[in-house]
Structures are given as C-alpha cells and as structure tokens.
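note to self — DONT lose this again. spent like an hour looking for the file last time. sequence + predicted structure for the chain T wanted, 192 res
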Amino acid sequence: MKILQSSVFRAICAIAVGAMLIKNPDSTVKGITIAIGILFLVSGVISCVAYFNARLHSAENEVYDADGKLLVGGRPMFPIVGLGSVILGFVLALMPGAFVTSLMYVLGGIILLGALNQFMVLIQARKFATLPLWFWVCPTLVLLTGLFVMIKPMESASLPLLIIGWCLLFYGVTECINAFKIHQYRKKMIQS
C-alpha cells in the first residue's frame, strides 16, 4: 500500500505543478525559483549560525589525553557549502529571471526521470500481469516530450514550460491510473 501512496503522491504533485505551469508559466517559474532560493538561503544561514555557535563554544568541548594532545573538539571547519548556499539563495531569490532560463532543462530532466520511472514500474509489473499496449504509450510520450525540451531549447521560456506543464499533468494522471491498475492486478494475483 505504501507504493500506491507514493505513486499517488508523486502524481498529485506533478498534476499540481503542471496545472500551475499551464495557467501561468512565467509567474509559476519565478515563484518556484524564489522558493528554491529561500530554501537555499535558510539552510545556508542555519549552517553558518551553527558554525559560529560551535566556534564560540569550541574550548568548552575539548578533550585532551595525558600528553596534552587534543583528542576531541577543536575549532570547527568553516562551512564553505553553507556560505555557497547563502550566495546561491540570494541570487535565486533576488534575481529569479537569471535562473528561469535554465530551469526548463531541470524540469525537462525531471520529466525524463519520471518517464524512466514509469517504464521501470511497468517492466516490474510485467512479471505478474500482461499489460496492454496503451500502458506503454503514455510513458513513451512523456519521454519524447522530455527529450524534445532538453534537445531543442526555445528562445521563449513560456512555450517549453507550457509543454512541460501539460506533460506533467499528463504524467500525473497516467501515474495515478497505472498505480491503481497495477494495485488491482497485484490483488488479483495474491487472491488467486
């Protein structure tokens, strides 16, 4: 049942993002970019604050052996990744337009991974059920769309994002249908 819930959750997320991209692709992408920037910024700030806190209290946590060698503690290493997260977070949150153009590649990659995941699920499902041909058509269309967006990037970001939105919506619906059908096939196999 957890697999069914996971598939349905993925499908609902894909449908929601797809619907937002279809309705208003430019605003949705800028909103997603700003949200990602804020997440990077918050995680980087937390990392830097934890570093400075550990640095202030580093002398309290030092343990020495009988010879005076430091065994545990010392000064913590500077959080380079945390600082990088802060910088990236500022760039994404304050200048989302700079990142939006490359976001279609990321979303195209997510579509490709989604299609490959659907293929893997269908290959696994073939072990206990004969699947009709139309089960394979939907992931094939999703895969081709993802490849098209990755190979032929367009000047305007809204057209590929509109295509990606429809594709995510299509992926979400087919993922739900596949999850329920495969769950039914499994139940029939277990009962017989």
